[in-house]
Amino acid sequence: xxxxxxxxxxxxxxxxxxxxxxxxxxxxxxxxxxxxxxxxxxxxxxxxxxxxxxxxxxxxxxxxxxxxxxxxxxxxxxxxxxxxxxxxxxxxxxxxxxxxxxxxxxxxxxxxxxxxxxxxxxxxxxxxxxxxxxxxxxxxxxxxxxxxxxxxxxxxxxxxxxxxxxxxxxxxxxxxxxxxxxxxxxxxxxxxxxxxxxxxxxxxxxxxxxxxxxxxxxxxxxxxxxxxxxxxxxxxxxxxxxxxxxxxxxxxxxxxxxxxxxxxxxxxxxxxxxxxxxxxxxxxxxxxxxxxxxxxxxxxxxxxxxxxxxxxxxxxxxxxxxxxxxxxxxxxxxxxxxxxxxxxxxxxxxxxxxxxxxxxxxxxxxxxxxxxxxxxxxxxxxxxxxxxxxxxxxxxxxxxxxxxxxxxxxxxxxxxxx
Length: 418
Ligand code: BGC
Description:
Structural class: alpha/beta
CATH architecture of the largest domain: 3-Layer(aba) Sandwich
Strand content: 5-15%
Number of helices: 19
Bound molecules: beta-D-glucopyranose
CATH superfamily of the largest domain: Periplasmic binding protein-like II
């Protein structure tokens, strides 16, 4: 009897252990701002990948394109000691958070999955703090795109522009045809997305790097900068009166419906076209923003991992990091998101021509020196500097009184913000 009792206690113990093993699947709270049609589909694929590993996903979505609202919410959560497991943080901001001592080292995952070999160095450098991985890269977005509705262009007798002069000729024709030439949302990150494409197209790669990445005072005060600002401001003449405050995906919807002829936006816009059942080359056209065909403004989405308490949570967080870099996920996610995988040597046969062009141009521009970080999307300068410059650029866009010269002086001043 005694014997049997002992055995059954042992059995029960083993059962509890086995069950705890199962229950060790953890919850991962993920902060992101992917709430538009294409973005939500892409986010759902990340959730599904994680759930397939037995972990659960706690959605922490903060709407707002470009992520400004998400970053504000994140700050308050971290300050109150309640960080999520992962947050969509990009570029130099990863270093800023790591310096605060709140990010987790995920080198073990990176080593086991050979991230150093799987990633371009320009990407792995961004993901590391003091040589250790603290973030996992999701994809590569190209920012310097122009999205076109070919029907609208046909109606207006307009030609797809390759230079800024041609852009304004096309815009005039679209206007005469009673259409909104440029779909725009007046939010400072969208204003700056337009601004940096103009800067790259009008000023060229060297100007872009010197002025907006190195923040060289002489270049910021140069005649080229004045021309860039004047060209940028001229784009505004071709936007509609409802542009202020409009979300980027609603601007894309105007192009999808043919109410507007074109939009200057990164290729997350393609996610919207695709989610609406539209086909590239037929229902919409993607071309490099005028004058920027040989260059590539990159924007890499990534998740920074926060220090957590609890083995199950840490394990689940590592599962998420591994899932993000898996070839299957990289493919599915980018097919929905409009981006391309960040992993090297991925097959592109399931991707459309816009993505194939993006992949080819990424490699070519990396060789030629035309691969540049997007300022509008947090890839180039410290977040405080970026915010200060963005504000001036939007004030200039919105003001009837500020001259290009005034804007230059104020941008040079803002560039000193740290
Ligand atoms: C992000 C994209 C996002 C877009 C619009 C960009 O800064 O990198 O992932 O889709 O903003 O919210």
